[in-house]
Specification:
The protein has about 180 residues and is of the alpha/beta class. It has helices at about 80-85, 105-115, 130-140, 160-170, and strands spanning about 1-5, 20, 30-35, 50-55, 90-95, 125, 150-155. The protein contains 4 helices and 7 strands; from the N terminus they run ββββαβαβαβα.
Length: about 180
């Protein structure tokens, strides 16, 4: 069984509005074991993924917080950013609960990566956009200078899976009918 090192709890923001440093609704595949690691475990040789779970829709993808012009990268330890930039670290942006990503979102993300000198191919973007790869390719074709390096786009069926689960709850009358 393959193991993936996940760096959790290291990106902190006093407001915490638009992102969290966790896997969000992503669930590990049975073929992989997730190994949670700490900042103290990081060295030049360890491979790891820094997950960012976008929870807000402000400018989508958690790129900018309420009124701030800051991103999750502004609150990430410089050693972590450097290991992503130059070594074996990767960023996983989990926006799997949503599927709507615009050209502006891709452009902002690429510009922020350039701002931090992080190669785009060190970023994985997971969303419930079943047309995500095609849309991203169209964006890259229109912005070739900005997208010399490509983000890895991961398409998911999360919204379909959730709809199926809710439908089954309704059919079996096994759901909470209260509205919060």
């Amino acid at each position: 069984m393959r193991q993936i090192n996940i760096l959790l709890g290291e990106v902190r923001h006093e407001k915490g509005y638009t992102y969290e440093n966790d896997l969000g609704p992503l669930k590990p595949d049975a073929n992989f074991k997730l190994n949670e690691i700490n900042f103290s475990d990081l060295n030049d040789d360890i491979q790891f993924i820094l997950p960012i779970s976008c929870i807000g829709l402000n400018a989508y993808l958690g790129l900018y917080d309420e009124g701030d012009e800051k991103t999750f990268l502004d609150f990430t330890n410089e050693k972590i950013v450097d290991l992503v930039r130059n070594k074996n670290g990767y960023i996983l942006i989990s926006y799997i609960q949503e599927g709507h990503i615009t050209r502006r979102n891709y452009k902002e993300l690429h510009n922020e990566l350039l701002n931090y000198n992080i190669p785009a191919n060190k970023v994985l973007l997971a969303s419930s956009n079943l047309n995500g790869k095609k849309q991203y390719k169209t964006f890259c074709d229109k912005m070739p200078t900005l997208t010399k390096e490509k983000i890895h786009i991961l398409e998911a069926n999360h919204m379909l899976e959730c709809s199926n689960e809710i439908y089954n709850h309704v059919l079996t009358n096994n759901y909470d009918k209260r509205i919060d």
